[in-house]
Amino acid sequence: MESTMIIPWVLAFVPLIILMMKKINGQRRLPPGSLGIPLIGQTLELSKAMRSDTADECVPIGPSLQQVGIQQRREDALQQAAGVGEPADGREEFVSDDGEDHRRLRGAILSFLKPEALKQYVGLMDNEIRLHITQHWHPDHVEPLMKTLTFNMICTLLFGVERGERRDTLVRLFQQVIEGTFALPLNLPFTRFNRSIRARSEVGAIIREVIREKRAKLETGEKGHDLITSLLTMCDQDGLPLLSDQEIEDNCTVAMVAGYDTTSGLLTYLVKLIAEHPNVYQLLLQEQEEIARGKKEASDPLTWEDIGKMKYTWRVGTEALRMYPPILFVFKTVVQDIEVGGYVIPKGWQVLWTTCITHLDGSIYPDPLKFNPSRFEDQAAMPPHTFIPFGGGARLCPGNEFARIETLAMIHYLVTRFTWKLCLIENTVSREPMPIFKQGLPIHIYSR
Ligand code: HEM
């Protein structure tokens, strides 16, 4: 072949070669590690690890996942990755909205859950806890007790639903909704997912009924102290309702799902950790008795000021959240290519940001497996995004203050009224996806 004829052939292949080089380069920059089986990825390994509560060991297996854990500590991580959480029945709740809608809905819920607003509800929370302790705290299993407490707390403060048949129906239905949230999305009769969808629709009907009742009360000038009433009274700049009834219904459901198992998980772990660390119990008692002594009458409820004095108690809560975060990871969709440690995570990937990689990192928390509340003596000095049980950025949990007050008030009454011992030496935990004590954490409890 003449040389003049070879040149056009070579030139014709140049763009193809460049394209191939680019592709290879692109692939090289992806985080290394297996993506698992097509379509289902590493879901099976992760589910197995969750059930045996070893997901913190499993997650770093895929370097791609570990890289995301590292990225979590960078200030910009959560702003760059926007969350996508599809509710079981495909409704548009605000966790799955982005941009303007998310900000509007989040703003509405936050105006009820921000500390300045919650201040006035400490008395209501106190009342709910006292009632709960009087009715339920006998020798028993801690986990179901804590679930009863957090459910009742949400029913009173968020829904304004009285004790009785309607509340009992709601607790059964919500349990089914939660079970389906992380189930395989198989909408066939008798699957968890299908049961969850049906339960969600029954919950919707009850909440709509509650909304109608609250609206009627507002029209007669009666005020309510709950989230639904507060959302019903919010208006935009034109004086029109800020949220539709559908949005109120959907977001009450989200708040219940997000706030029920999480806070009860934290409280259950706290009972276990306090029993295992008698020195911690003594320090808690000292702080809480000091607060109790400051009351004129033993029956006086806790106040916002009392909550502010519970510094050591919250250090204990914080350390429990570090070691045993109720939410181990959250899925996010990467909305634009991000570079982490020299690798590119491409737009469109589903990634997990995980709490455990950061919380158990010895370079941030020396001796990370030791339960040591004093490591949080100077929390303000800690680098940003090193303590992330409530997430961070634009989607930071809006219920964190609600959970903090509820936890502190409950610990106050537990340590000042009781001592307790664990019944079992080994209390195995499964993550479904919230931590569940398989035997329910049985304890022997003694009045003080
Ligand atoms: C110990 C208790 C709790 C923990 C550990 C916790 C943790 C979290 C986490 C990790 C997220 C996801 C953040 C993200 O996507 O970046 C979240 C979101 C959320 N949480 Fe909590 N939570 C707790 C209690 C509560 C409570 C009591 C409520 C309501 C009263 C609540 C309401 C919500 C809501 C509405 C969201 C969605 C926020 C959004 O997408 O903008 N949480 N929570």
Concise synopsis of the structure shown:
The chain is mainly alpha-helical and 448 residues long.
Description:
With 448 residues, the chain is mostly helical. It has one domain (37-447): Cytochrome P450 (Cytochrome p450, Orthogonal Bundle). The protein is 55% helix and 9% strand. The protein contains 18 helices and ten strands. It has a three-stranded antiparallel β-sheet. It has a three-stranded antiparallel β-sheet with strand order 2-10-7. Strands 4-5 form a two-stranded antiparallel ribbon. β4 (338-340) and β5 form a beta hairpin. The longest helix is centred in the middle third of the chain and has 32 residues, at 245-276. The chain is globular. It starts with a helix and ends with a strand. The model is unreliable at 60-97 (pLDDT under 50). Protoporphyrin IX containing FE is lined by residues 78, 83, 95, 106, 109, 113, 254-255, 258-259, 262-263, 266, 326-327, 330, 389-391, 395, 397-399, 402-403.
Give the helix proportion (percent range): 40-55%
The N- to C-terminal Cα distance equals 101 Å
Would you identify the regions where 5 or more consecutive residues have pLDDT less than 50? 60-97
Strand content: 5-15%
Strands, total number: 10
Number of self-contained structural domains: 1
Largest sheet: 3 strands, antiparallel
Radius of gyration, in angstroms, nearest whole number: 25 Å
Shape: globular
Q: Can you list the ligands bound to this structure? A: protoporphyrin IX containing FE
What structural category characterises the helix and strand content?
A: mainly alpha
Order of helices and strands: HHHHHEHHHEHHHHHHHHEEEEHHEEEE
Report the total helices.
Answer: 18
Subcellular location: Membrane
Binding site for heme: 397
Keywords: Heme, Iron, Membrane, Metal-binding, Monooxygenase, Oxidoreductase, Transmembrane, Transmembrane helix
Membrane topology: Single-pass membrane protein
